[in-house]
Amino acid sequence: MATVDYDSSADPEMDLTSDEELEREAEGFKEQGNVYYVKKDYAEAFNFYTKAIDLCPKNASYYGNRAATLMMLSRYREALEDSQQAVRLDDTFMKGHMREGKCHLLLGNAMAATRCFQKVQELEPESSQAQQELKNAESILEFERLAEISFEKRDFRMVVFCMDRALESASACHRFKVLKAECLALLGRYPEAQSVASDILRMDSTNGDALYVRGLCLYYEDCIDKAVQFFVQALRMAPDHEKARLACRNAKALKAKKEEGNKAFKEGSFEEAYDLYSEALTIDPNNIKTNAKLYCNRATVGSKLNKLEQAIEDCTKAIKLDETYIKAYLRRAQCYMDTEQYEEAVRDYEKVYQTEKTKEHKNLLKNAQLELKKSKRKDYYKVLGVDKNATEDEIKKAYRKRALMHHPDRHSGASAEVQKEEEKKFKEVGEAFTVLSDPKKKSRYDSGHDLEDDDMNMDFDANNIFKAFFGGPGGFSFEANSCKADLYLLLIIIC
């Protein structure tokens, strides 16, 4: 008689018993998970919910519970997957739809979140939570719309504001964070932008957008080589990242053009250097720090080419871009000194000295203050029409010429107003000669000292000085010797 093998697995009664045991065991794991969830030990709760799912993978509530636990652990993408699996298993599972919507919202997908909350309202029309979350989703959509418009208008502050508001409900949205970080970089708030981008990269080291923002911050801080490395890395992660491609191209072009300008300057080709710096300034108007340096470099070249007013303007542009740029203040101050705009020079040197109290900056400030003080006195050299390095003979010759030109007798036939003006000039000529012909007074005057404050004798008679040159007890008379005077004046001018 043949033997028949008995297959125990085909026994329906035994299968039923096994399923019931698995369900009971799974329920036990779920209950344990609930206990840990209440205790806020979400890691252990997650482990027990996972065990329940392993035993009964078609139970929607287990996925729903694990999704809730993952949300508490801020693992929103995994929570979203569990929520979606829960509602696939049971489309009437209201909590599953709610959790899916919350995950979408936290991750910044307001449209998908809206559909989930609308489904909750179908299942439970009086759900106040669904109504509130729908309002949150609508707000996010509105902030996104406004941010897009503001970005096109280059109103980056408004974009940051919109993203901050959106992130109140979508705190896990990397897209919103990256946009905020990019705008912070464009506003020059580099540490804040770097912080946001770094937070994203800690969670996702392959995020091309965050890598791009890190590079952008370095690029705008004039660390171009490091910036290029980040742009290249961003393009590896996201080959179609157009912003990273453009920034990388601009960074390389800017560096190359700036280095060409520097090379031309060192070789003494100032016109070429000026043109190269000008070309570099057209590459990227958004690169504030690099452009500030380019303006200052062009100002340096401009001063070499004696384009002092243009150099001052370039320094002002550099300072407008970077108010902390000490080199631009120093360059502008020197240009002010060269153009005898001493008050402006003092103002710039004061700014520099307040920032960096070095001995060199103190001396520059003192020198500018001295020149300012000197500029407010009578310029005796200008009165005589001589250079500051004029010799004693040149000073005497200049006095003779100016004294004859302005002597009151020469203008006796003029109007009272003209006579008064010429008499004033005649006295100034005598005063100038009194100071510049006396070595001690001249030295004090050249040093910027007030001669009257130094108790130096400044009493003089312009007519007596005139007599010393032209002799005679009555001085040189233009009325009696007008022809002789005119001839003498002509000789003086020719000589």
Automatic annotation (TrEMBL):
Key words, A-Z: Acetylation, Chaperone, Cytoplasm, Cytoskeleton, Nucleus, Phosphoprotein, Repeat, TPR repeat
CDD domains the record matches: DnaJ (cd06257)
GO cellular component, one term: nucleus
TPR repeats: from-to residues: 26-59, 208-241, 254-287, 292-325, 326-359
Pfam families, alphabetized: DnaJ, TPR_11, TPR_8
Residues annotated as domain J: 379-449
Location in the cell: Cytoplasm, Cytoskeleton; Nucleus
Keyword Methyltransferase: no
Cytoplasm recorded as keyword: yes
Acidic residues biased stretches: 8-24
Domain of life where this protein originates: Eukaryota
Region (Disordered): 1-25
Major location (coarse): cytoplasm
Entry-linked SUPFAM superfamilies: Chaperone J-domain, TPR-like
Record function comment: Acts as a co-chaperone regulating the molecular chaperones HSP70 and HSP90 in folding of steroid receptors, such as the glucocorticoid receptor and the progesterone receptor. Proposed to act as a recycling chaperone by facilitating the return of chaperone substrates to early stages of chaperoning if further folding is required. In vitro, induces ATP-independent dissociation of HSP90 but not of HSP70 from the chaperone-substrate complexes. Recruits NR1I3 to the cytoplasm.
Protein name: DnaJ homolog subfamily C member 7
Organism whose genome encodes this protein: Sinocyclocheilus rhinocerous
